[in-house]
Amino acid sequence: MSSPTTPDVEPFDAVDVIRTKRDGGAVAEDALRWMVDAYTREYVADSQMAAFAMAVLLNGMTRDEIRVMTDAMIASGERMSFAGLGKTTVDKHSTGGVGDKITLPLAPLVAAFGVAVPQLSGRGLGHTGGTLDKLESIPGWRAALSNDEMFAQLRDVGAVICAAGSGLAPADKRLYALRDVTGTVEAIPLIASSIMSKKIAEGTDSLVLDVKFGSGAFMRDVDRARELARTMVALGTDSGVATTALLTDMNTPLGLAIGNANEVRESVEVLAGGGPADVVELTVALAREMLALAGQPDADVEAALTDGRAMDAWRRMIRAQDGDPDAPLPAPRETHTVVADREGVVTALEALPFGVAAWRLGAGRARAQDPVIHAAGIDLHVKPGDRVAPGQPVFTLLADDEHRFARALDALDGAWTIGDEAPARSPLVRERITA
Amino acid sequence: MSSPTTPDVEPFDAVDVIRTKRDGGAVAEDALRWMVDAYTREYVADSQMAAFAMAVLLNGMTRDEIRVMTDAMIASGERMSFAGLGKTTVDKHSTGGVGDKITLPLAPLVAAFGVAVPQLSGRGLGHTGGTLDKLESIPGWRAALSNDEMFAQLRDVGAVICAAGSGLAPADKRLYALRDVTGTVEAIPLIASSIMSKKIAEGTDSLVLDVKFGSGAFMRDVDRARELARTMVALGTDSGVATTALLTDMNTPLGLAIGNANEVRESVEVLAGGGPADVVELTVALAREMLALAGQPDADVEAALTDGRAMDAWRRMIRAQDGDPDAPLPAPRETHTVVADREGVVTALEALPFGVAAWRLGAGRARAQDPVIHAAGIDLHVKPGDRVAPGQPVFTLLADDEHRFARALDALDGAWTIGDEAPARSPLVRERITA
User: Fold this and answer.
1) Nearest-5° Cα angle at B18, B13 to B22
2) Contacts of B168 (CB under 8 A, 6+ apart)
3) Are A14-60 and A334-419 the same fold in CATH?
4) CA-nearest residue of chain B to A55?
5) DSSP bridge pairs for B128
6) Of the candidates A261, B141, B270, B407, which lies 20 to 30 Å from A117 by C-alpha distance?
7) 3-state class of B82 per DSSP?
8) B55 vs A19: CB contact, 8 Å cut-off?
9) d(C-alpha A345, C-alpha A387), whole Å
10) Looking at the predicted structure, is the pLDDT value of residue B369 above 80?
11) Which value does ipTM take for this structure?
12) Structural class in CATH, domain A83-166+198-327
């Protein structure tokens, strides 16, 4: 049995906090703040926070508890401010998917309208890629900026995609790593507080969330994705950040490129007025939401993609971070193309196995310290609904080492199907959630 | 997201095992065995086992999972055998309560009938006392015996109460310490597998369980105590250990002594044919169950308490472990007596606060490495149902330092009541559970 007294120096007891949540209760504000703070100080052990996280996953948290949890994680680190910028700031966050390069065309597109877009991004782990990994395909480009550099670039260029400093919500960093190894990633209150603590600490004026559902997303299920989106919109709103969310379909990879360098190439195609229809559709939809929050609900977003304004912003953004937008991107040493064995129509391309296959080809990392191979990944040649003839290429694997193909093909076994009838089309943007 | 591959050297992944239990599934036998083994090897981290334990607490385990869990914990260490003893062995286990000194008179009482009683006991932590702590009040007595010493004493004396060696179910030792700090002590599958793994590994022929319910027990609720008892009886039976359980009331402290030296004194009173009625009743009830399992269902247990046979066995047992049964027991330096402020009848003495108060007086320990103060504790002068007059002593606090009285009295605020009508009497032994 645990001690019936509390230690002299600490006002709360971790076991009491865990038991409250375990037994379905709501943890009092001061106790929950203490729990996060004491975990950051390493007074509360990983094992205690893991038991608490599992209890949260299974028993949930009230809206008030989620707000306090988020606030406590913000309080664990520094808060930034873009108040002196003289522009309104709009951030965007995606819960992650396969082929999700949307940040790359989106940030310069929105910045082309005079709005500041600070994108503090991460690296990939597992089957979902990381925005910084993709951009590092560009020779010379650097992810690490000082706060002063970031501020100057927001002022002069408008768009910044860079690494989040370690100062924002350090409690979240520790908790996220713990959740990853304890089967507690999927807890909606913890996902919401993790994402929103960093966005609120960053100090953006407004925020658009791309909350994905489907086989390639955290949330397989649209109902859980909706719950997550509503939770985050409420959190942002309660904290004075104007927040909107789109629920978007992640059953099929976005676009035709899955990897790093090939996703940059596809993003540049979109910025040049071309690119796959789904990438354009989602980029435009998110840009409209961001510009609406920035006070420009009638901005002609498509025009900025076709008339070169978004491309100009992209080139300035890449150059400001020492990248060469005209340099050739890394090319794979080995390729392996899979062709259709029959005539018909592509009925499915499952996002998760294509994500796993690209990861196995070297596009992603198994451990945080591993490098990624920028040229590795998968180029799709068709999408669901496209007709194919026997022998027609369906997709091409890209790698630096042909030994990687076998395990990637294992992952893809059964992941794509050719049938006789075109699949029902479901909308890419399923729902819009506002405060 | 966790890695979609499994490591090369380990056949299972802890996150998969945690997720299965988290999502309400049953963990496959080989995966559960691996989880316990890998935790013992420290490949599975405390944080992972803590998340798993919380999922078990909230989602339960099947009878089959509990059997596998128990078996895996047995397999983590050595197995003992009393096969060469030439006597049948009967063990008893109590889930712990306040004033529960029953092992002390019970082991020699049963041994007086020619049965071997191996009592591998523990130390107290929190408000429930430890049998070894109590016996260590006796000058010279030592808890640590080698397996050979234990075997010889069982053969020659019949009763042994000693410390469990570290070789039995080491996985349980690590898991128990983890559960204590992560709010997962109360999981019935984990309590059952913890207790039964040690009893089965010990190699006893049969076992009587004293499963307590009420305010001073692990299980407040009689229904949960019954579930625990049934789970353990099934586990013992499945493993070839004849097992019976009694459900007993732990809302009121057992007997009049709560502490260490004073509980030894009270045990000796029972062995001399006296002692409080409830201690005698429970000692006799458990002795009957043990002797029935040992093939002596008609043994005259009461006679052995009054004719000195049980006392003789006690004296031999204490001497065999270098204790002096005639030496004076430690006495407290300070005492504080609380008296009745009105005339009436004692309607309640709540076990938990009296346990906590005794613990705060120094009878128990907050951390495993702390010493206990053998003379500390509480002597009750009355029990529920007794009439009192104003100024009549209700209980006396015993300590080595008068500064401890205030916090003990805090714990006792509201813990005892005097009213006008005698409380309803509830039976001490509520139910008997057999295979």
Assistant:
1) 150
2) B77, B78, B80, B120, B197, B198, B201, B202
3) no
4) B54
5) B125
6) A261
7) coil
8) no
9) 4
10) no
11) 0.84
12) alpha beta
Rounded CA separation B198/B232 (Å):
12
Coil vs helix vs strand at A99: coil
State pLDDT tens for residues B226-269: 999 999 999 999 999 999 999 999 999 999 999 999 999 999 99
Three-state secondary-structure class, residue B119: strand
Amino acid at A129: G
Q: Tell me, what's the pLDDT at A8? A: 52
Q: What residue ranges do the domains of chain B occupy?
A: 14-60, 83-166+198-327, 334-419
Average pLDDT over residues B45-63: 97
Residues of A in CB contact (< 8 Å) with B are 1-5, 14-15, 18-19, 22, 45-55, 57-59, 125-128, 178, 180-185, 218, 356, 359-360, 366, 411
**Catalytic annotation present for B46:** no
Task: Give the model's pLDDT for residue B126.
Answer: 64
A266-to-A275, A331, A379, B143, B203 alpha-carbon distances in Å: 6, 14, 10, 74, 69
Question: In angstroms, rounded to a whole number, what is the distance separating the alpha carbons of residues B122 and B403?
Answer: 29
Name every chain B residue with its beta carbon within 8 A of the beta carbon of A356: 4
Contact check, Cβ <8 Å, B183/A51 = yes
DSSP A9-78: S-SS-HHHHHHHHHTTPPPPHHHHHHHHHHHHTT-S-HHHHHHHHHHHHHH---HHHHHHHHHHHHHTS-
Distant-in-sequence, close-in-space partners of A397: CB < 8 Å, separation ≥ 6? A335, A336, A337, A338, A357, A361, A378, A404, A405, A408, A409
Which chain A residue's Cα is nearest to B178?
A47
Task: Report whether pLDDT(A254) > 90.
Answer: yes
Chain B residues contacting A, CB < 8 Å?
1-5, 14-15, 18-19, 22, 45-55, 57-59, 125-128, 178, 180-185, 218, 356, 359-360, 366, 411
Amino acid letter for position B83: A
Evaluate if residue A106 carries a pLDDT over 70: yes
CA distance A34 to A56: 16
pLDDT in tens, A276-323: 999 999 999 999 999 999 999 999 999 999 999 999 999 999 999 999
How far apart (Å, rounded) are the C-alpha atoms in residues B306 and B427? Answer: 24
In this predicted structure, what is the pLDDT of residue A6?
Answer: 42
Per-residue pLDDT, B275: 97
- The C-alpha atoms of residue A271 and residue A252 are separated, in whole angstroms, by 22
Closest CA to B206 of B233, B231, B168: B233
**Can you say how many angstroms the Cα of residue B290 is from the centroid of all Cα atoms in its chain?**
16
Task: Tell me A89's DSSP state.
Answer: B
Closest to B50 in 3D by CA, of B29, B11, B22:
B22
Q: How many CB pairs under 8 A join A and B?
A: 130
**Cβ pair A411, A360 in contact under 8 A:** yes
Identify which of A5, A53, A218 has the shortest CB distance to residue B51. A53
Question: Residue A5: is its pLDDT beyond 50?
Answer: no
Domain B334-419 of CATH type 2.30.29.30: no
Residue B92 bridge partners (DSSP) = B208
Locate all alpha helices (DSSP H) within B203-332, ordered by sequence.
Answer: 222-238, 261-271, 277-293, 301-306, 309-320
Residue A184: its chain B contacts at CB < 8 A?
A: 22, 51
**pLDDT at position A330 over 80:** yes
Residue-wise pLDDT tens digits, A170-198? 888 889 889 989 999 889 999 999 999 99
**What is the CATH code of the structural domain delimited by A14-60?**
1.20.970.10
Residue A1 has pLDDT above 60, yes or no: no
Q: Is the pTM of this model over 0.95?
A: no
CA dihedral B393, B394, B399, B405 (to 10 degrees): -100
Mean pLDDT of A88-105: 95
